[in-house]
Design goal:
Low-confidence stretches: none
Shape: globular
Number of domains: 1
Number of strands: 10
Mean pLDDT: 92
CATH class: Alpha Beta
CATH topology: Spore Coat Polysaccharide Biosynthesis Protein SpsA, Chain A
Number of helices: 7
CATH superfamily: Spore Coat Polysaccharide Biosynthesis Protein SpsA, Chain A
Structural class: alpha/beta
Radius of gyration: 16 Å
Largest sheet: 8 strands, mixed
Order of helices and strands: EHEEHEEHEHEEHHEEH
């Protein structure tokens, strides 16, 4: 099974693709590594391909980097030429060989995303940046998701449609990435498989046990697990 690992780094975080790059390369040494960014990459030799792109968002907006990151993670999944594509954030660190089951999970379910510690879409929409306030959609009671890692079976037509709707809807009416994912799932009528919190350990789940991927962008996660890399 061929695998592409996609990193999407923009704005001030354009070169902040560690610890993810080294971490995923350790567990997926045969994978193709692709970077999407808005500027010249300082270390292009670390990637199989670097895509310098122009995001469809206002560069002066304070959420420009977040918007572009989510957009091109999804675009990268759809453009991948391997059996499975996995989009990850640069501030994540795999810490268990169980991460190697991710391609099999994607192949089985089509699309996999980790759970969000805010639990409900309604809560994530009303508390998170670029949410919808108030939020009274029918799908507010579904489980909220995180946007790293996202694992996709590129041959799965239903999930391909979901990701395509994600991109189209974000052009017309931008919302935070996790909300956009569940908005697209509701529109299409299919939902991704939601992975356990161990797949994206945020500070609320410090010490949960059986950790697979740490979200080291959270200072409290770095401190708890004594990880020296990552940015807030």
């Amino acid at each position: 099974m061929s695998v592409t690992i996609i990193l999407s780094q923009f704005g001030p975080e354009a070169d902040a693709y560690e610890p993810a790059l080294s971490g995923y390369r350790k567990y997926f040494p045969e994978a193709k590594f692709v970077l999407y960014t808005d500027r010249e990459c300082a270390t292009p030799q670390l990637f199989n391909k670097v895509n310098v792109v122009i995001p469809p968002f206002d560069r002066n907006h304070p959420r420009y980097g977040n918007r572009s990151n989510d957009w091109f993670k999804i675009k990268g999944l759809l453009d991948a030429e391997t059996n499975v594509a996995i989009a990850v954030d640069g501030d994540t660190l795999p810490v268990s060989d169980r991460v190697q089951t991710l391609p099999a999970l994607a192949e089985r379910f089509g699309l996999c995303v980790p759970s969000n510690p805010r639990c409900m879409v309604h809560v994530d929409a009303t508390v998170g940046e670029e949410g919808i306030k108030p939020f009274d959609r029918d799908y507010g009671g579904l489980h909220a998701v995180n946007m790293t890692p996202i694992a996709f079976d590129t041959s799965n037509e239903r999930m391909w449609r979901l990701l395509d709707v994600f991109l189209m809807a974000q052009r017309a009416n931008r919302v935070r990435g996790p909300l956009a994912m569940m908005r697209a799932a509701w529109a299409v009528g299919v939902a991704p498989a939601i992975l356990a919190p161990q797949w994206c350990v945020c500070w609320r789940h410090n010490g949960i046990g059986n950790e697979i991927i740490l979200h080291t962008g959270h200072e409290k996660v770095r401190e708890y697990y004594n990880v020296a890399t990552g940015t807030d």
